[in-house]
Structure formats: structure tokens, C-alpha cells
Design brief:
Pfam families: CLU, CLU_N, eIF3_p135, GSKIP_dom, TPR_12
Strand order of the largest sheet: 2-1-5-3-4
Number of strands: 25
Protein name: Clustered mitochondria protein homolog
Largest sheet: 5 strands, mixed
Organism: Astyanax mexicanus
Strand content: 5-15%
Helix content: 40-55%
CATH superfamily of one domain: Tetratricopeptide repeat domain
CATH architecture of one domain: Alpha Horseshoe
GO molecular function: mRNA binding
Keywords: Cytoplasm, RNA-binding
Structural class: alpha+beta
Number of helices: 44
CATH class of one domain: Mainly Alpha
Radius of gyration: 33 Å
Distance between the termini: 34 Å
Shape: globular
Length: 1183
């Protein structure tokens, strides 16, 4: 949450009330929309919306979706598409906007065809599986469809339904899509295109061929007036209108007139499409790629064919015939005004839209570069050194061009430099200093290549770098120049990024002042803007992985074997670590002021890492020097101290080779060196133990490699410390409780090492052998077969190479058949060597079988991780990993290779601030105030990002929980359902966040009385958890407890026991046998056994609960007394049962025997227990 921390420090955002007076008038109002031949309908609009956004919504509504070429008119005046509604005079509540059909142009016809194609394919998941057009998968409706309402009538059948549930993605999905896809009439561009001159004079634009479902063939003319049938055939050109004349402004209306089947099927498709949630249909701002896909049919698609043949890449529809000037677009959005909240919203929206468009285009361009479809600007050079310009974007490959990085690690440094530079661009973008500009930057990993895409500074290609750079150095510090304007512009970034202004010596020993590293270059473009680039050294170097001759690290680092060699010398500390270190030092500083200088040593000892558990401290001894305060400053208030007396900054050039400092700075340089040593010691002695401590108390609970990486980064720990983290876990006395973290971390290490090797492996593969080589690599990695037969696959490919086409970029790595000789043993030896070299960790497994049997890893989890990291898409089917005599994967199982894209993520700063304030209010117990603030944040996020964004998902989840706590279950359901949809669309159907969203929705469904739907959702979450992390995980204990409770609620006691017993075993393992959560699990089991009438087992579990409460909170605590009373109740019931049984055995009448009551628990009790399991209610809560 660094963005929140930085934003809190800004001068105009101290509390949410600062925003309230500036909230835009965005309440919205209602207008009437009238289409030709229809009655007016009400339409709610926002004053911040633009006219073209209203048109986009109309193109999505069922009654107007077939129209694209129209304008909106108010009182006879046509509205400009790019005008905000608030700027239109005369537009007010109940104003009538008329839809007026406009004449077509060639461009409008193609837009119309694309839109109709999108309508016909709106229920087809092909684009989502292929990663096209912002489509992504969404499965929620298949688990809630026809079950979200009216379940009360099905109470008697619940038991039967529960047993028949199938909670994996439904197989009938593909069949359903095919049924609707039958409405597709075959639509193709005619070979008679383009129209001859005489027909252009009659308004002809495009000719189409149509084959209807009735197998009738038609020729259609798209003209300026619309669409009509002509008399042409395949071999005869007769463009005159057919008789009888069939004409329509919309192609859909024309097809409906000539094909009754199309009309019927299209109507059904629209009804089905309308029944889906809008979030399922709109495009995501950033393309999501699925690592699995079914076998899909390849259908005819004229739009797709035209895109491929005409190379539309880089040409956007709203800028016809022109290439977008990406640099101008990206920089001009940052120049928009930002004084008022409305200004900032419009600015943030423009920045986000420009960036997402740039990322999309850069990704397409990078793929085209690797595929060999873009000519290099230096074709005579080695393929590794070639550079490209395409669509006003500059592309370079991640190789060490002209040995530029030779002293920093060669190829390894060149590969890492792109992402490190991107991190610097991201950091400067967040600071958002006015007048300082960064290049648009995207890093794309595709088919073994790393491609960096950057916007082009105006004029930089016409002059040499030596003439362009006015700030920084182009020769690693030998020649350094500075610039007063840049020093002024860098003032704000250097303060927020904690970079120290410093003096370096030029090659003639003249002093030069810098506010950044010497490698940071300042360029004034031909547009007059001041650009900074090459931000590799934005953050301080990581001395733990940068051995420097004559320098010794702090003792705690040396004890763990630091400094260690790293493949490159670009390793730097994370911004999160710098912030945590400064915050820690400030806390020590404040404590020393409050307690007095005499008690300084004791203060430091007590203040160090209160969250770190003792065992972690034994691993890493704390030894950090305090900052000595000025005695005169002891009377200064804490608010005055932080900005004035306490300002830690790092010199980014302190250990840079070739950089020299003046002799008078020697003392300051030594202090800076020690400060940097203290920072890396802080990472070892504080942050790594703090991370392990958070895993032990379950405040951090990673489920896969992505969430583990996120958690490490939040603690400021670079992923290169993964080996150190694993070693610390292995030394822990509570390693059993950290078993899940160990397995996930080991899996992450293995798959990252594999990714490094796979990159090199792919460079030696020609394009025609991609599927065979990838399947062979996966067999070597995951198959139990001794050696996967790669040479056999090569034999089958031999014939394909006979007619080799022009050379592609896929052949620069060496022998084209080298990949086939790779064996499983060799690959795992290489993984071990990579783990030792990169992570300094000796792996405990030497094969996939050992990884599974000895370390508890699962092949499916490894397959998912490596596929996501490398962009592999595999066929959905049952893979038999244990097969000994045949390969697990064949080349038919490898469907595609997608790019892995890294880019900056612009944020809506005002929305983040309101969200942060709302979360604080909720934590303080002010639920309604917090709800209002979070609702405002949701509105701001939606204005900036649109509906599909992770921040929107976060707001919806928080609002859903607040409404649930307040007892408004319908609102909770509504918000949480949208949160699930967004998470599936934006993060992925199997992302850990999506699993959590499913769990929350299941809880709210049960509380609303929809038990069957709740079970479907919880089982879906469990299915995904098995795929992501396996069954042995503390989150699975919580999930199994919820499933068991819901099953108990519908009196499925036997099934409930299985899940609750599994939850008990996992809870005991990860929480400890005497934890309160174990006591709760025993109680849930006791209640189920009571419902079954098995009182002996119920007594056994309740006694365990009683003993835990007694030992943990004492005899007098309410929970202990409650357990004691329940034990008496169970004993009494057991006695009644035994008496009843004795009487039955004696064949006597039992007139005075009390009846035995075996009933399902109340829904309110189940909900209360679900709240305890979820953490909404505390275990020791007295009410």
C-alpha cells in the first residue's frame, strides 16, 4: 500500500473531508432515448460521461445493439462524440435524445461488420481462450444460474441435489455455445472488392457474400445508405439491386429479412446475451491470457481474416489511416490540469486509458517482432542486436548489445535491466512530478525473447546520444553533465524516493551535482519536454548480492554467508524495504526522544521488531545503530520532527564502479556506506523474520507463487532471497506450521529456475517445432518416464523443414535440433545448478518424483506455475503424470504460447485515499461512515478505470462484507457477485483472489437462505484450491469447515463429518493442537455427531474442546462454562438414548421415557459458526 502511504503525505489529502467539498456533481440524471420506429425509453447518464460513451452503451442494449452508424440529436442539433454531457447546453432531466441514422463510409461499414461479428460471438469463449479483444473467461453464472432465487421450494430435494453436484467447469458449456453459434450465417468479403469507379459513384462501399442457415447464397452490397442484395454471383458481376428489393440500414435487419432461421436464432442469442451480466461482456483494460483451453473449432470469420491480411496492427479506429503518436498521447495526458477533484478524475482516466491502449499495442508489436513480421532498422547487424520501430514504438531485444553490460553481468544483466528500469519508471510515475516525463515502457517476454517497448522521444533518432543527454552520464560516470532545470524537476522525486543530492567528479575532476544516479539520463526532446530515462539505479544497491572489495557487511549478514555472488550486478533494494527501514529508524528516533538519551540503548533493544517471533530472531541477530538526535530537538513535537529533523536518504551512486566523489565528501560517503549496510542488515534481521512471523500467525497466507511473491514484496524482500527464506523455514522449530509456505516457496524456486532455462531452451527452436519442443520440455520436467522421446518428435518434424520459408527470429540460439536431446535427468541437474547459482540454495530433490514424494509438491501445481510464468497454453484434459512408459504431453497438447507482459499500473489517487480512509473507519467500528467513504471510492474508481479493475473489486468486496455485517444480505450478495465477476475477468478464473471471492459469495448465499447455491460456490472454491495449492493448506481448513457447516445445515451429516474431520486435522497441524480454532473444530464435530445421535463421539470431541478452553482461558471464562453446559446436555441425551435402547432390548413399553430429539441446527446458528470460521466474529467474543 505504498501508494496510500505516499498519498497520505501529500499536502491536500489529509482527511476525507478535504474531498467532500470538491466532489463532482456526478449524481447523474435521466434522459429519454428514441430510436427510429420505437417509443422513447428512459436512460440514466452521468454528467462526466462523453457522448461516444453513451453511444457505446446503446450499442450494447438489446433493442439498439444492431446499430453502429448513428448520431444523437438534441432538439435537432447533432451532439459531438467527444463532448462531456455536462458541457451540452439544454441537456437536463427528461431531455429527449433522438437516434438518427447516418450515411455509411468504408470505415463505418467495417466497424459495423466488426460489431455484428462481436454480437454473434458474444457467447462464444473462443476469443477469451485465444486472448483476443480484451476477452476473458467467467464461469460464475454456471454455478448460480437458475439457483440464485427461489430455493425455499426445493428444501426436500436438497439432499439428493447435493449428492449430484458437479463443481468443475461444466462440460456442457461448449455445447451451449455451439447451439447459439448456429445463428451464424457465413459472412465473407467478396472477391469483387473493391467497387469499381462507376459503382463508387452510386455509393457502393463493400461487397459481401452471405450463406444463410437455409444454405442459400446471396451477394450483399454495403453502400452509403445501408445494405441491400445485389445480383452478383461467384463468377458474374452485376451490382444492381436484386428483385424484389431488400434494403436495410443494418446488416442484422437485412439478414433477418432473408433468413427466418437467422432471425429466430439471433433473437434467442440476444435474449441469452441480455440475461448475462454486463461485466461478462465488456472488454478488460489489459488482456488476460488463460493457461488452459479446450479443443476449439476454427470457424470462418471475415473480420479476423481481414485483420490478419491487412495488418491493421497499430491503426486505431478513431484515428483512421493514421498511426497514433504514443509519446505525445502519453505525455499530454500528464499535462492535464489537476487542481480540482473533477480535473484529477478526468486526468487519471485519460492516463489510464492511454496507458492501457499503449500496453495493448506494444504487446502486439513485440509479438510481431519475435514472429519476424517487423523489419529491423539495422538489418545488417546480428539478430540479437537488431532494433525495431513499429507504430511509433521503439522495440529492442533483451540481449547485451555491443557488450554494454559486460562489466555488470553480460547477458544476465541485459535481461534484468528491462524490468529494473520499468520499476524505476513506475516509481517516478507514482511520484508524478509536474514537468518531468518518462518514456512509456512495456516489457514483453515471448517465446524465449525479452522485448522492451518504449515510446520515442521526439528528435532522439535524428541526433546522437552524446548531443541529446544534458543530465547524467552515457559512459558509466566518466563524463557527467548536470542541468539546473533537471535538478529542480528532480527535487520532488528525490525526496519521495529518498535519493540524496550528491556531488560526483567529472573526468577532469570538476564537481557535478546530481539528484539521481549518474546512469539516469536527462534529455530535452524536440517538443521541449524534459525526459528522464535509464532508471536502473533508482533504488540503492543490494550489498548482500554485490560483493565489494574492502567492504564488510554487518555481522548478521555475514553469519548467513552474505555477500553472495549474483549473476548480475544490478541487484537493488525494493522501495517497500526503504520505506520500512526509514519508518523503523524514525520509530527508534521518536522513542529515544520520548524516553531520554540516557535510556537510548534500552529503547533500541525494546523497539526492534515487535512482530518478530523469538525463533526468527535466533536465526538473524539484530544489530542496527540508531540515529543520534540533536539534544536541542527533544522539545520538538513529533509532527515537526519527521520533515525537519529526520530525513534519511540514500546515495544511489555510492558503490557504482567508475563514479568518483570529492575528497571533502569522504565522511559523508562513509556514513552513506554504513547506512546502506544497515538497510540490508535490516532486511535480514527484521523483514525476513517478520514475514515468517506473519505466516505463523496467518496474517500472511500465500496460496501460490504469485501471492507468495506479493507477500515477500510487501515486506520489501526481493525474490532472490527465496533461498534464504527457505533456509530460515528449515531451521524453524515450527516448520510443520510453515509446511505450506515451504512447499509454495520451493515450488516457486523450482519454476523460476525452470523459466530461466526454458528461455534459453526456446531460442534454439525453430517455429515449426514449437509445440513439439514445449511438450518435450514439459515431459522432461514433470514426467516420471526415464527419458522423454524428443528425437521421435524430431523425426516427425523433418518433412516440415524441407520447404523452409524465410528465416525467422526463432533460430538465433544455435542448433535447431539441440532441444530434442534434453533428458529429464539433465534438466533437473540444470535446475539444481540454477538454484545454487541464482538463489544459493541446495534443493532437497533431484527429480520430479522426489519433489512429489519427499517434498510434498504436486505436479499439477508445478504445471500451472510454469505455464503462467512462460505463457504456455495447454489442452484441458486428464493428464496421467505417473505413466512410466509413455510421455505425459504430446505436441497436440500444446495449444499456444502467449506473451507475459509487465507494465506500469496507473492508479486513481483520490479513490485510493478514500478507500484507505474508509478502511480505517471500518476498523474503528464506524461501519456506516466507512461504507459511505468506500462507496465514494468505488464511484471514483469506476470513473477512472471503468468497471473491470482490481481496485473496483476490492471496494465491492469490502462493501459486501459491511452490508453482510449490517444484516443487509441482498446488498451483500449484489456487491459480492460483482466482485467475483470482476476477479474472474481481470485476475483469472483460478487466481487466489477469485477463490476468496467465491468463498465470500458462498457465505452470503447461505445467509440469504440459498444453501444449494452456497454449496456450489464453496465446492467451486475447493476445486480451484486443489488446482492452485493442493489440499494441505490452512485455507483449506477454513473452507472445509464452511462446507461442513452448510452440509450440516441441510442435514447431510455423513458428508459434513468428512469435511469437518479434514478441517480438524489441518487446523491442528497449522494452528497447533491446543489452539482455540482446534477447539472450535471439535465443537462443530460434536454438534454433527449429536445430530446423528452418536453421543459418545459427540462427548469425545466436546471434552477436547472443554480441555482446550480450560487450559487457554481458565475455568471461569464464558466459553469454558458454555462447553461445560453443553457436555452436561450431551451426557443427558446419551443417558436418555441408553435408557431407550435398554427398554427396546427388554421389549418393554416406555411410557415415561423422554423423546430423543435429532434435528438439524438452525440457520442462525450455522451462520454464527460460519462467521466465527470466517473471522467476522471473534472466537472469544462474549456476545
Amino acid at each position: 500500500m505504498l501508494e496510500l502511504d505516499r498519498y497520505d503525505a501529500s499536502e491536500h489529502q489529509e482527511d476525507p473531508s478535504a474531498l467532500e467539498g470538491d466532489i463532482p456533481e456526478d449524481a447523474g440524471f435521466t434522459v429519454k432515448i428514441q430510436a427510429p420506429g420505437t417509443e422513447p425509453t428512459d436512460f440514466h447518464v452521468s454528467p462526466l460521461a462523453m457522448v461516444h460513451e453513451i453511444k457505446q452503451v446503446l450499442m450494447d442494449r438489446e433493442e439498439t445493439c444492431h446499430r453502429t452508424c448513428f448520431s444523437l440529436q438534441l432538439d435537432g442539433n447533432t451532439l459531438d462524440n467527444f463532448t462531456h454531457l455536462r458541457s451540452i447546453s439544454g441537456l437536463q432531466e427528461d431531455s429527449l435524445l433522438k437516434i438518427v441514422e447516418e450515411p455509411y463510409t468504408n470505415r463505418e461499414v467495417r466497424i459495423h461488420l466488426r460489431h455484428i461479428r462481436d454480437l454473434l460471438k458474444s457467447l462464444d469463449p473462443t476469443d477469451a481462450y485465444n486472448g483476443l479483444e480484451g476477452s476473458s473467461l467467467c464461469f460464475l453464472r454456471f454455478f448460480t444460474e437458475q439457483h440464485i432465487e427461489g430455493e425455499s421450494s426445493k428444501l426436500k430435494k436438497r439432499g439428493e441435489e447435493i449428492k449430484q453436484f458437479n463443481y468443475s467447469p461444466p462440460e456442457e458449456l461448449k455445447g451451449r455455445i455451439k447451439d447459439f453459434y448456429k445463428s451464424h450465417t457465413v459472412l465473407a468479403m467478396s472477391s469483387w472488392n473493391p467497387p469499381p469507379g462507376n459503382r463508387k459513384m452510386h455509393g457502393d462501399l463493400v461487397y459481401l457474400n452471405v450463406v444463410t442457415m437455409e444454405d442459400k447464397h446471396y451477394s450483399v452490397t454495403a453502400s452509403t445508405r445501408g445494405f441491400f442484395l445485389n445480383q452478383s454471383t461467384t463468377y458474374s458481376f452485376n451490382p444492381k439491386p436484386a428483385s424484389p428489393s431488400v434494403h436495410s440500414h443494418s446488416l442484422v435487419e437485412l439478414l433477418s429479412q432473408i433468413s427466418s432461421t437467422f432471425k429466430k436464432n439471433f433473437s434467442a442469442l440476444l435474449k441469452k446475451r441480455t440475461s448475462t451480466h454486463p461485466f461478462e461482456r465488456i472488454s478488460t483494460p489489459f488482456q488476460l491470457f488463460s493457461w488452459t483451453a479446450p479443443a476449439l473449432d476454427h470457424a470462418m470469420d471475415c473480420v479476423r481474416a481481414e485483420d490478419a491480411s491487412s495488418s491493421r496492427l497499430g491503426y486505431e479506429e478513431h484515428v483512421p489511416g493514421q498511426i497514433r503518436d504514443w509519446n505525445e498521447e502519453l505525455q499530454s495526458t500528464r499535462e492535464l490540469p489537476r487542481k480540482t477533484l473533477t480535473d484529477r478524475l478526468l486526468r487519471d482516466r485519460a492516463i489510464f486509458k492511454a496507458n492501457s491502449d499503449f500496453v495493448t499495442t506494444a504487446t502486439r508489436g513485440a509479438m510481431a517482432v519475435v514472429d519476424g513480421n517487423v523489419m529491423p532498422i539495422n538489418p545488417g547487424e546480428d539478430p540479437r542486436n537488431q532494433m525495431f520501430i513499429w507504430s511509433s514504438i521503439f522495440f529492442s531485444l533483451g540481449f547485451d548489445v555491443r557488450e554494454h553490460y559486460q562489466k555488470l553481468g553480460g547477458e544476465a544483466a541485459a535481461h534484468a535491466a528491462s524490468t529494473i528500469d520499468l520499476n524505476g519508471v513506475s516509481a517516478y510515475s507514482v511520484v508524478d512530478a509536474e514537468g518531468l516525463y518518462m518514456l512509456g515502457t512495456v516489457v514483453v517476454d515471448y517465446r524465449g525473447y525479452r522485448v522492451t517497448a518504449q515510446s520515442i522521444v521526439p528528435g532522439i533518432l535524428e541526433r546522437g546520444q552524446e548531443q541529446s543527454v544534458v543530465y547524467g552520464s552515457i559512459d558509466f560516470g566518466k563524463t557527467v553533465v548536470s542541468n539546473e532545470k533537471f535538478l529542480k524537476l528532480m527535487d520532488k522525486p528525490s525526496k519521495q524516493l529518498r535519493m540524496q543530492r550528491h556531488i560526483v567528479l567529472n573526468k577532469d575532476d570538476t564537481p557535478v551535482e546530481l539528484a539521481s544516479s549518474v546512469e539516469c539520463k536527462g534529455i530535452v526532446g524536440n517538443d521541449g519536454r524534459h525526459y528522464i530515462l535509464d532508471l536502473l539505479f533508482t533504488f540503492p544497491p543490494d550489498l548482500n548480492f554485490l560483493p565489494v572489495e574492502g567492504e564488510e557487511l554487518n555481522p548478521e549478514c555475514q553469519q548467513l554467508g552474505f555477500p553472495r555472488q549474483h549473476p548480475h550486478r544490478l541487484a537493488c533494494l525494493r522501495q517497500e524495504l526503504i520505506e520500512a527501514f526509514v519508518k523503523h529508524r524514525h520509530q527508534l528516533f521518536m522513542d529515544s526522544l520520548s524516553q531520554g538519551l540516557k535510556q537510548e540503548d534500552n529503547c533500541i533493544q525494546a523497539a526492534v521488531s515487535p512482530l518478530v517471533n523469538s525463533e526468527a530472531q535466533n536465526i538473524c541477530n539484530q544489530a542496527i545503530d540508531d540515529v543520534t538526535p540533536d539534544p536541542a530537538s527533544q522539545s520538538i513535537s513529533s509532527k515537526e520532527i519527521l520533515p525537519q529533523s529526520f530525513d534519511i536518504r540514500f546515495n544511489p551512486d555510492i558503490f557504482s564502479p567508475g563514479v568518483h566523489f570529492p575528497s571533502e565528501s569522504s565522511k559523508e560517503i562513509e556514513e552513506q556506506k554504513q547506512l546502506l549496510k544497515d538497510a540490508v542488515a535490516f532486511l535480514i534481521s527484521n523483514q525476513i523474520p517478520a514475514f515468517i512471523g506473519s505466516c505463523l500467525d496467518h496474517t500472511t497466507m500465500p496460496m501460490d507463487g504469485f501471492t507468495l511473491t506479493e507477500a515477500l514484496h510487501q515486506h520489501g524482500i526481493n525474490i532472490r532471497y527465496l533461498g534464504t527464506v527457505l533456509e530460515c523455514i528449515e531451521k524453524s522449530s515450527r516448520m510443520l506450521a510453515l509446511d505450506h509456505v515451504y512447499r509454495i516457496a520451493l515450488s516457486e524456486l523450482i519454476t523460476r529456475c525452470t523459466k530461466h532455462l526454458f528461455k534459453t531452451y526456446l531460442l534454439a527452436v525453430e517455429p515449426s517445432a514449437l509445440s513439439a519442443s514445449v511438450s518435450h520440455f514439459l515431459n522432461c520436467l514433470l514426467s516420471s518416464s526415464p527419458d522423454a522421446p524428443g528425437t521421435q518428435q524430431m523425426d516427425r518434424l523433418a518433412s516440415r523443414r524441407r520447404s523452409r520459408r524465410r528465416r525467422s527470429r526463432g533460430s538465433v540460439g544455435g542448433s535447431l535440433t539441440a532441444w530434442a536431446s534434453l533428458t529429464s535427468c539433465e534438466l533437473w541437474r540444470m535446475i539444481q545448478a540454477e538454484a545454487l547459482e541464482y538463489y544459493h540454495y541446495s534443493m532437497p530433490c533431484w527429480s520430479v518424483d522426489q519433489a512429489v514424494d519427499k517434498c510434498g509438491l504436486q505436479r499439477i501445481n508445478l504445471l500451472r506455475e510454469i505455464s503462467i510464468k512462460t505463457g504456455i497454453q495447454i489442452l484441458i484434459k486428464e493428464y496421467h503424470f505417473d505413466a512410466k512408459h509413455r510421455p505425459v504431453f504430446t505436441e497436440e497438447d500444446i495449444l499456444n504460447m502467449f506473451p507475459v507482459v509487465k507494465h506500469i499500473n496507473p492508479r486513481a489517487t483520490d479513490g485510493l485515499h478514500l478507500l484507505h480512509c474508509g478502511q480505517i473507519k471500518v476498523q474503528q467500528g464506524s461501519l456506516k461512515e466507512g461504507c459511505e467513504l468506500i462507496s465514494q471510492a468505488l464511484g471514483l474508481f469506476t470513473n477512472v478505470y471503468g468497471a473491470l479493475h482490481r481496485d473496483v473489486c476490492t471496494c465491492l468486496r469490502l462493501l459486501g462484507r459491511i452490508y453482510y455485517i449490517l444484516g443487509d444480505y441482498s446488498e451483500a450478495l449484489s456487491h459480492q457477485q460483482r466482485a467475483v465477476l470482476i476477479s474472474e475477468r481481470v485476475l483469472g478464473i483460478d487466481h487466489p483472489n477469485t477463490i476468496q471471492e467465491y468463498k465470500h459469495l458462498g457465505l452470503y448465499c447461505f445467509a440469504s437462505g440459498q444453501a444449494a447455491t452456497a454449496l456450489r460456490l464453496l465446492y467451486r472454491a475447493r476445486y480451484l484450491m486443489l488446482l492452485v495449492c493442493g489440499e494441505d493448506h490452512p485455507e483449506m481448513a477454513s473452507l472445509d469447515s464452511k462446507i461442513g457447516l452448510v452440509l450440516h445445515g441441510v442435514f447431510e451429516c455423513d458428508l459434513a463429518l468428512k469435511f469437518l474431520e479434514s478441517a480438524l486435522a489441518l487446523t491442528s497441524k497449522y494452528q497447533g493442537p491446543n489452539s482455540l480454532k482446534v477447539a472450535q473444530s471439535h465443537h462443530l464435530l460434536a454438534k454433527v455427531y449429536e445430530s446423528k445421535g452418536e453421543f459418545r463421539s459427540a462427548l469425545k470431541h466436546e471434552k477436547e474442546r472443554y480441555m482446550i478452553y480450560r487450559s487457554q482461558v481458565g475455568d471461569a471464562h464464558e466459553k469454558t462454562c458454555e462447553s461445560s453446559e453443553y457436555l452436561k446436555h450431551l451426557t443427558n441425551q446419551a443417558v436418555i438414548l441408553q435408557r431407550t435402547m435398554n427398554i427396546i432390548y427388554k421389549n418393554s413399553a416406555g411410557g415415561n421415557i423422554a423423546p430423543l430429539k435429532l434435528t438439524a441446527p438452525s440457520r442462525s446458528w450455522i451462520v454464527e459458526q460460519l462467521n466465527l470460521v470466517t473471522g467476522i466474529k471473534q472466537l472469544l467474543c462474549t456476545n
